Amino acid sequence: MAYQVLARKWRPQQFADVVGQGHVTQTLQNAIKAKRIAHAYLFVGPRGIGKTSLARIFAKALNCAKGPTPEPCDVCDSCKEIMAGSSMDVLEIDGASNTGVDQVRELRESVKFAPTRGQYKIYIIDEVHMLSTAAFNALLKTLEEPPAHVKFVFATTEAQKVLPTIVSRCQRFDLRRIPAALIVERLLLIAREEKVALDEDAALAIARGAEGGLRDAESALDQLIAFRGDKITEEDVLAVFGLVARHTLESLAEAVLKGDVPALIRIVADLDAAGKDMQRLLLELLDHIRNLLVYQCAPQAVQSMDILSTQVEVLKVQAGLANADRLLRMAEVLAATEDRMRFALSRRTLVETALIRCARATAVSIDELIRRVDDLQVGAGGAPAPTTPPPPASGGAVPRPAPAARVDEAPTGGYAATVRREPPSASARAPAVPKPVPTKPPAAPAAELADLVARWHEVIDQIGKNASLARGALIDARPLEVTADRVVIGFDPEFAQHAERMRMTAHHRAAQQVLSQILKRPVNVEYRLMEAQGQADVPADHTADGTGPGLGKAAPGKGAKTRQDWLKDPVVRKTLETFNGSIVDIRE
Ligand SMILES: [Zn+2]
User: Fold this and answer.
1) pLDDT digits (tens, 9 = 90+) for 346-370
2) What distance in Å separates the CA atoms of residue 63 and residue 76, rounded to the nearest whole number?
3) How far, in Å, is the centroid of ligand 1 from the Cα of 153?
4) Which CATH superfamily is domain 6-174 in?
5) How far does residue 119's CA lie from ligand 1's centre (Å)?
6) CA 187 to ligand 1 center in whole angstroms
């Protein structure tokens, strides 16, 4: 018999063979038993987890000579034709390669004719979200009033891109990523049948590489058999995927948790030299940190986690090295870095910086942090002017509430701390009268910031429409701060020239226009370099061109101290130094 790739040879033929999607197969079988078959189904899920296989099994179940049956016979002509892909009644359309309206028109024509052999005409449209809008609309007409003998099965990796009018006419099923343990089981079974020596570590490495996609895992096994013959080790698998051996990953995590910077630099250098995928490394490390968090916060949940018992042993040891707060901060740092990685020139540098941040910036607990801040305040009590408050003008007046400078660390690491201190210069005028509260921005700035971060690519696409070069300059930047009248965009010092470019009139104006539009109020845009370590951010002039559209500035109170003033303040300076921080907000 001619050689067949494993994924094809081992394609599931019965609902019971479909791995890891019991919630879907059960429902479909029940629907067939109860003769409650919908006109259209939508299978949603990542690639390679069995959407089209499931669609074919469903088609066989409907059109089997014994059917509709929850267990197609696989021997009747209809079943055989569907398996061979030659059935006249089952038409598969690949949305990705048939984006045109013509195929859908053809489909609409053929829909009118009765099935030749089975009871139903079944249209399987894979990657349905790829169809053009015209094709979608043509399809919709058929979907609205399908003849009784027509069934549709749509599959997609991106449900949000399928027209809602189509989704609403379908029964939707969400297929899950397949747990690594199930993929391992399946791979071991295939290896046994194919007479290939594959141990559990190697199978796990394949499953890790395939990220929950069974088809990818099977293809990888194919590739490995071609590469290594009938004996496959973990090393072979790691080499093919560019993956990092589990114990190396665990050593790296340990170095970070222990704050052992030389060790982590050495490990990263070795991995880079071995050509390992840095982005992948980061993701796997993130996964490990997440496992540590789960182990710490909900130890009983470990049983349901998709990991091996040897991994649990490691978690037990490493969970003692950091508290949950620190793990959460590490996860944030890693996730933010991963996000920036796609566009970075030197991935290794990014990874190193992120890991050093994880190792250093957060090596203290919150309690320790509060203690240090308290110490700072005491220590700075006798500090010389300019900050020593002069005696109040009217004797005995109660000092007004102290302004607070919120001090945060450089955007991706470390703790945020709030420093309260005596008013820096209790101005002679009426000390008891509180200053007017600055006007609140219309929406919560934190939510707006989160929204901008999430839609950043969309935002820079829009800016790029008016200033195409701005796009490239903004791709490595990210929004840091949103206030009532201001948006601050942060740049890595590595990309300082991008910040410069954004200060050019046309780019600056485009950015200001788009962001004002998005936030529905006039805002000034500022560009700021983010220091990786140490000093505060370098503030940048926001209207370098001086020709900004004169957007409303909600001019802060005349007496208010500026960021620069705060930076000169010894307590603030010391705090920033101690915590590798920068000022993100000044509040009264
Ligand atoms: Zn059959």
Assistant:
1) 888 889 999 998 887 554 555 666 7
2) 10
3) 19
4) P-loop containing nucleotide triphosphate hydrolases (3.40.50.300)
5) 12
6) 28
CATH topology of domain 255-360: Zinc Finger, Delta Prime; domain 3 (1.20.272)
Measured in angstroms, how far is the CA atom of residue 213 from the centroid of ligand 1? 28
Query: Cα of 496 to ligand 1 centre, how many Å?
Result: 66
| 6 CA → ligand 1 middle, Å | 23
Q: Could you tell me which of 244, 230, 322, 228 has the C-alpha nearest to residue 277?
A: 244
CATH number for the domain whose boundaries are 180-241: 1.10.8.60
CA of 128 to the centre of ligand 1 (A): 27
Long-range contacts: 567-574, Cβ < 8 Å, 24+? 567/536, 568/386, 569/387, 569/405, 569/424, 570/380, 570/383, 570/387, 571/376, 571/377, 571/380, 571/383, 571/387, 571/419, 571/421, 572/405, 572/407, 572/419, 574/376, 574/379, 574/380
Ligand 1 midpoint to CA 22 (Å) = 22
Ligand 1 centroid to 35 CA: how many Å?
17
Amino acid at 261: V
CATH (one of 3.40.50.2300, 3.40.630.30, 3.90.245.10, 3.30.300.180) for 445-560: 3.30.300.180
Q: How far is the CA of 79 from the centre of ligand 1 (A)?
A: 4
Burial of 44-68, coded b for 16+ CB within 10 Å and e otherwise, reads bbbebbbbbbbbbbbbbbbbbeebb
What spacing in Å lies between the alpha carbon of 63 and ligand 1's midpoint? 7
The full set of domain ranges for the chain reads 6-174, 180-241, 255-360, 445-560
Give SS3 for 318. helix
Cα angle: 509, vertex 513, 518; to 5 degrees: 150
Could you tell me the distance, in angstroms and rounded to a whole number, from the CA of residue 68 to the centre of ligand 1? 9
Cα atoms found within 13 Å of the Cα of residue 579, Cβ hemisphere only: 32
Mean pLDDT of 143-156: 89
What distance in angstroms lies between residue 77's CA and the mean position of ligand 1's atoms?
A: 7
Instruction: Name the residue with higher pLDDT: 349 or 439.
Output: 349
* CA–CA distance, 63 with 117 (Å, rounded to integer): 8
What pLDDT sits at residue 41? 95
CA 12 to centroid of ligand 1, rounded, Å? 15
Which pLDDT score, from 0 to 100, does residue 399 have?
A: 41
134-143, 211-220, 426-435, 443-452: the lowest-pLDDT one: 426-435
- Crossing angle between the packed helical segments 200-210 and 214-228, to the nearest 10 degrees: 130
Q: Is 534 left (phi over 0), alpha (psi -120 to 50) or beta?
A: left
